[in-house]
Amino acid sequence: MATNTLGNSRIAPLYAAGFTTAFGAHSIAAGLGSEFESLGSSLLALGILLALYDVAEVILKPVFGSWSDRIGAKPIILGGLAAFTLFSFLGVFAHDPLALGLVRLGQGASASAFSPAASAAVARFSGNSTGRYFGRYGAWKTLGYVCGPLLGAVLIWWGGFPALFMCMTAISLATAVWVGVGMPKLPVLPKVRYTLKDLARQTVEPGFMVPTMVLAASTGALGTAVGFLPLMGTNVGLNSVQSMGVVSLLAISSALIQPWVGKPKDQSRLSSLAGMVSGLVLIAAGLACAALWPAFLSLLACAVLSGAGIGITTPLGFAHLAASTRHDRMGRTMGSAELGRELGDTGGPLLVGAIAAAISLSAGLWTLASAVLAVALLALWLLRAPKAL
């Protein structure tokens, strides 16, 4: 297949698209908490502003993923990036909670278009090297998730929300131009009729359900770490720079291991099942370190172990999905899998926060670690058949 020989220069724009959606989702979170009083906003309004982006993604990602199968990935990616650029530019002039809410909703809807389409395009371009290319794609997405709050805080401190939205405008515009110039157009494959019964059957197939659960668990752990590690750092006497440095260590750990772990998968030296389970065990071990002994060294161990686990599970989960999905429904599959990740991204911090409020933060982390291990055991059970990848 010709797509197997495509160079990195042609797939690299998709890495930028992955970074853009992750950066857009998390960059504003750092500033809303400190700026919402100046906007005349309540805590309820703050919660709504933080959730609107993810709500739009949860609803629309499967829809746009299916559309990318019908009309092609590149038009959906370009349209989504163009809309994201427009809404980001409008955010420069948003000075009240209602306007910010509409901008965030528009950004989330736009990201819902280009994110699953980009994942589907990576799957089709990568051929037999899905582990390698999803490793790189996931590394850039992880950097967006973790670096978003850091850079967002700096931009808001320097120039307020207008500076942040101008940065997002520039990033999304540059990515759109790069995709338009550098990404080859994928042919639309012949359409196969699917019924709701077929969709329901695919949803419960182990080849889809297991990697989606693994991705949801790892993303939930990532969201929890980004949200709670700085708080735990403050509780053990670290300053804000040191606390965010712990989060940065998690990002570095994850970003470094993702491209590396894909190669043995492509060479059949590492199975998806063994890698995903090992990654989940590392994530659970990292969470347990932070829960068992809240101290600077344990937070570092949590960042390294959890980051490594996330770095292993993410490319292998997507590679498993790509290998077990027909190309004519790749967009729909990736959109549904991205929905699972969004639910994990929301559910992990909510679970830990609720238990922390009722009992303690350590209890919340123990609960999440137990849930991650439960997913690992379920993966072992469902993919124990010899045909499992």
Could you give the topology of this structure?
Blueprint: H1 8-26, H2 29-35, H3 43-71, H4 73-91, H5 97-126, H6 130-182, H7 196-204, H8 206-235, H9 240-266, H10 272-292, H11 296-323, H12 330-358, H13 361-382
Can you give a write-up of this model?
83% of the residues lie in helices and 0% in strands. It is an all-alpha fold and 389 residues long. It folds into two domains: 183 residues, Growth Hormone, Chain: A, CATH 1.20.1250.20; 192 residues, Growth Hormone, Chain: A, CATH 1.20.1250.20. The longest helix is centred in the middle third of the chain and has 53 residues. The N terminus and C terminus are likely disordered.
CATH overall fold name of the largest domain: Growth Hormone, Chain: A
Q: Give the CATH level 1 class of the largest domain.
A: Mainly Alpha
Largest sheet: none
The CATH superfamily name of the largest domain is: MFS general substrate transporter like domains
Number of helices: 13
Order of helices and strands: HHHHHHHHHHHHH
Low-confidence stretches: 1-6, 385-389
Distance between the termini: 21 Å
- Quickly give the CATH architecture of the largest domain: Up-down Bundle
Using the alpha-carbon principal axes, give the shape: globular
Radius of gyration: 20 Å
* Overall pLDDT metric: 85
Beta-strand share of residues: under 5%
The proportion of residues forming helix, as a percent range, comes to over 70%
